[in-house]
Amino acid sequence: MNEPRRRGPVARLLGGIWDAMNFTRRLVFNLLFFALLLFVLAVLAAGDTTRPMLDRTTLVIAPEGRIVEQYTTDPASRALARMLGDDSAPEVQLRDLLRAIEAAAADENVERVYLRVDRLQPSGIAILREVAGALRDLRAGGKQIVAYGESFSQGAYLLAAQADEIYIDPMGSGVGLEGFASYGPYFGEALQDKLGVDVHVFKVGEFKSAVEPYVLNAASPEAKQADLYWLNDLWQRHLADIAEARGLSVEQLEAGIDGMADGVAALGGDLARYALEQGLVDGLKTSREVEDLLVERGVADEDAEAGFRSVDLDGYLAHVDGGLPRTPRERQVAVVVAEGAISDGIQPPGSVGGESTAALLREALEDEHVKAVVLRVNSPGGSAYASEQINREVVALKAAGKPVVASMGHVAASGGYWISMNADRIFADPSTITGSIGVFGLFPNITRTLDRIGVHTDGVGTTRLAGAFDITRPLEPDVGRLIQASIEKIYNDFVDKVAAGRGARPAAIDRVARGRVWSGAQARDRGLVDELGGFRAAIADAARRAELGEGDYRVRYIEKEASPFAKFMADLAGTRAGAVLLRDAGLAQLLLARTVPELERHVRVFEQALANDRGVAARGMAYCFCPVF
Question: Where is the Peptidase S49 domain positioned along the sequence (predicted)?
Fold first, then answer.
């Protein structure tokens, strides 16, 4: 067998020089190509897609999906999703809706608002009341509002009711006023009898009902009593808001709901006509007929899709942001958003992490330009430990002389109340869901499940507690007492901290705690909330506490910043040329597929808790199964 011929030293030297030159050539050409690509993309991203605002413009507000306090995806993912027509999980920020409506009220170029809320998903009555208040102020300022929808859910209708005129499609399903409810599945029989899973419950508070679906077949009398109490309060306020906006009485609305079956039957099943007869809408029109009406009242524009001079929400916000005056950097009211379930560690936007949210508050503490903080809470709670991590940062801010005002959104219950309780002032909407001061723990055991398939657990341990928290072994009574003692300790700490923060006795707090849920108005009457008001009122109060004059400060959201690449892609996707470039690009679709998260679910909270990855004996949960209407 012949061995390969070895090259001489001169040949090796020449070969090395050639390889080096070849590498250099490829490197230079790649760098030049990359530089050229960046230049082209930068030119595309620099293109201005906003058209100049003309007089007599109609502002089109058509939010789709959920109204959220904070986006759950990064800017690039949202821009790419819009560009690719992906509307699987749309979101609109409450702050954007409010500032657009407030700006339109003072904008001479905005003649009216065209409101489309029929594609709005349940977002929480307190959130909707905030938007409804802004629309009411806009209308009171002389701007006309025209609302249209194929049909309206009872939540979206609260917004539509603020309009001067409301129209629905003749073939639509009318207005879905039906009442508020809190129903859900109960798995007691399925888990215990069918699957052989024993769920051990440890809790404090007879009204702490979040664990009931796992051990009962129906809601307990205490849960039904408590839920109906606050649900009725929210429902009566909802009816009153609608009645006032439409010039009706609550009795008329209630009669229309009770008599809906007979009334609709008498009209041959015409739900739209029934809504018209009940005074809920002003007319039956198709979308084209409403657009023709807006052409007549406004300015015709052949280039506009709807035929009239208009600007959508995103386009208008671009104008608003471009015209904002510069305010001194050294005077800021910082806003930290705590939205979603509270979990341990670092969590992405749209959820609350003990470490990540605490870090945002710490940033506000360390920034000398921040003079006050508003903690905007929209959370049903979760991990008790993570809640306390956040609470400690609130206390630290106050100790440093920076006022902290808690602003409760749709829900600030259980752990959501925990992180709010030490604020200098707690604001809540009357329809906020709050309270639920209680703690529970769950320990599932699958011994009987394994027995059914012939699988058994056996072995040895060095102590009585060794292996005691293995879900394949029966739960020892001593271990159960250990967990219950831990849960009671967390509850007592919770009550004591609330009492200290609220300036009350622990016994007084315990009487309104016990896991019971309250509306914002009920919580105010029981000393758990200081004042009824929305986000704007909380901002004003925080500024006043920091002795900042009106217009003498700016509101700054402290959030995890997007990466430079994400910002660049968002800017690029927002341009017409960039949209054309990326619409069919595999890169855009790949980025979108990788970054759009799944919707937050209740079960995720328990999955993280049950994972028990830190080897702890039990993890206390301060969580509320609060519904969204």
Answer: 139-291, 397-548
